[in-house]
Amino acid sequence: MLRVCVNRVVVAAVVFACISTARAEWEVVNLHPDGMEKSTAYATTGSEHGGQVDVVPGYHWYEEHASLWTGPGLSWVDIHPGALETWSTVYGMDGSQQVGLYQTQSDGSDAHAALWTGSSGSFVDLNPAGYSTSVAKAACGSYQAGRANVSGASHAGFWLGTADSFYDLHPGGAQASGVEGTTGLVHAGWTNYGEGLHASIWKPTLDGWLWFDRHEITGRAYSKLFDTNGVQHVGETWNTVSDSHAGLWSETGPTFTDLDPAWGGGESHAHALSQDFQVGSAFVGTACPHACLWRGTAASAWDLHSVLGEGYVASVAYDIHQSGRELWVVGEATSGQSEAMLWHYTPPASDPLAKFSQMPDPNGLDVAFYSAAYGVPNVLADDWRCQQTGPVAGIRFWVSWKGDDVGDIPQISVAICRDDAGKPGTELWGGSLGGDNFTVGGVEIGLEDWYDPAAGVHIAGDHVEFYSVLLDDFAEPFMQTEGDLYWLVLGTPPDLDVGWKSALVGHGEGENPAVFFDLHGVGWAAMGVPPDGEVPMALAFEIVGIPEPASVLLVGTGLLAALGVIRRRRMR
């Protein structure tokens, strides 16, 4: 039976700036099965959670069983694949798959990486031939990632569903390495060249997988990564055993942020991250760890332990799943015994968090903002239908540079227009932002094409990097109305080989193909995916309905008015 404790708390504005002083509901669900001695939840997909449960009374090395909590009532499912006197656990999960470890010997000498798809009977032994032991720590899409031991040394690597698919990522000359988190296209973990652990990532390039040391930017003796979302990574750094600091790495720079909170006791750990948040634990004084939630800075640290209620002396958060601004955090809390725990945050019903999303296709294409062949700008536009009345407080879109020749974008022109028979009509809002007034995110990886619609030029496999761009410095956010169809129109200065990235999914009902303004043709022209153009083009962007502090007014002549493309309704 599950024990549910609902606490209504005022969430600190430093963490949830988007809801400020709104009252948000945290529901805490104790996942610990009745009659069992202890349990821990290590992974979550939001709808399901995975970990281990102690199923044997008393102390025995073989007491832990790989477990799932699933279904409407979060029923406990024992997916342990072997006999009673064996040991297993789930460390990571994604979609319908779970990964972890299975062993029959108390010393772990036969530990094998394990893969499940929801039941004990689905167990797959991932231990590769020629390797003595292995463990899978993370999963994403068709990838499972972890490490395998050969000749007494741990080697980082990943699988694609079978033991013989193991790909060894171990860097030459290293003594040991391991992967702890993965997006499939970026793996995060550690290496040891004899001087202690170093935070490390692996990325694909056109020439194969490359290893990158992310330790030097920390300024500390040792470091290790536990999770990644492709752009950011979390883990910990330390000089001594008892001074670990939770840390956040960003591929922009790259840079490092020490997350150790001022209210803590000088020891903290970050285990996982989502799009916007990081989770782990921070010690309160020197006594016990408290589960902790961050939003990118040490000052944003918020004590998740505070919503557990009385009787719990310690807690740790191991994983997080985010959908919009709804959060699921799993871990354990101690009250005489360790008990698997779920923290579930649901935004208030009145919270203006609705947003439109067309996420980027990592293996899609980028549409040029400038036609080098014709020497003219390609003003680009795509539409969205408003899902909830409220301010457009942020616009995020994704870009790449032709041939990965990355440069600076000095200015971005933006407009929001009415729909006029399937193309941009009257401009309702717009202007220009200089380079100091928008944010370019970290690098993401995919194999991508380049497309110039004006010249009809299509270059397959042109580049591998893409970046997010966030526009949110609006003094006067545009007010959108539920049900209305709008066009987002974007442009950059001439002579920049930068393009707007295509979306992973297409348009919804009532929406139109993306368009470009053909200065040598008939005006706005619909785009199709090359080479044949039969599939309508969709461009990757998000319309964010979360109020943010405003400081910079959009200034200058509107994008479309400057080109003489449409009528301006009012100046900004």
| Unreliable sequence segments | 1-24, 348-354, 547-572
Physical arrangement of strands within the biggest beta sheet:
38-37-42-34-44-45
Radius of gyration based on Cα positions: 25 Å
User: How large is the count of helical segments?
Assistant: 1
The chain-level structural class is mainly beta
* Fraction in beta strands: over 45%
Estimate percent helicity: under 10%
Overall mean pLDDT score? 85
Largest sheet descriptor: 6 strands, antiparallel
User: What spatial form do the alpha-carbon principal axes imply?
Assistant: globular
Number of strands: 46
End-to-end C-alpha gap: 59 Å
List key phrases describing it:
disordered N terminus, mainly beta, five-stranded antiparallel β-sheet, six-stranded antiparallel β-sheet, disordered C terminus, single chain, 572 residues, 1 helix
Brief write-up:
This protein is mainly beta and 572 residues long.
Summarize the structure in words.
The chain has 572 residues and is mostly beta strands. The protein has a domain at 355-563. 1% of the residues lie in helices and 51% in strands. It has 1 helix and 46 strands. The strands form 11 sheets. A 6-stranded antiparallel sheet has the order 38-37-42-34-44-45. The chain has a 5-stranded antiparallel sheet with strand order 1-2-29-28-27, with no helix packed on it. The protein has a 5-stranded mixed β-barrel with strand order 31-39-40-36-43.
SSE layout:
Elements: E1 3-10, E2 23-30, E3 39-44, E4 49-54, E5 64-70, E6 75-78, E7 87-94, E8 97-103, E9 112-116, E10 124-125, E11 133-140, E12 143-150, E13 153-159, E14 167-168, E15 176-182, E16 187-192, E17 197-205, E18 208-213, E19 222-228, E20 232-238, E21 245-250, E22 255-258, E23 268-273, E24 278-284, E25 288-294, E26 302-303, E27 314-323, E28 326-334, E29 338-346, E30 355-358, E31 365-368, E32 370-371, E33 376-377, E34 380-385, E35 390-392, E36 394-401, E37 411-419, E38 424-434, E39 439-452, E40 457-471, E41 478-480, E42 485-491, E43 498-501, E44 515-518, E45 523-526, E46 541-544, H1 559-563
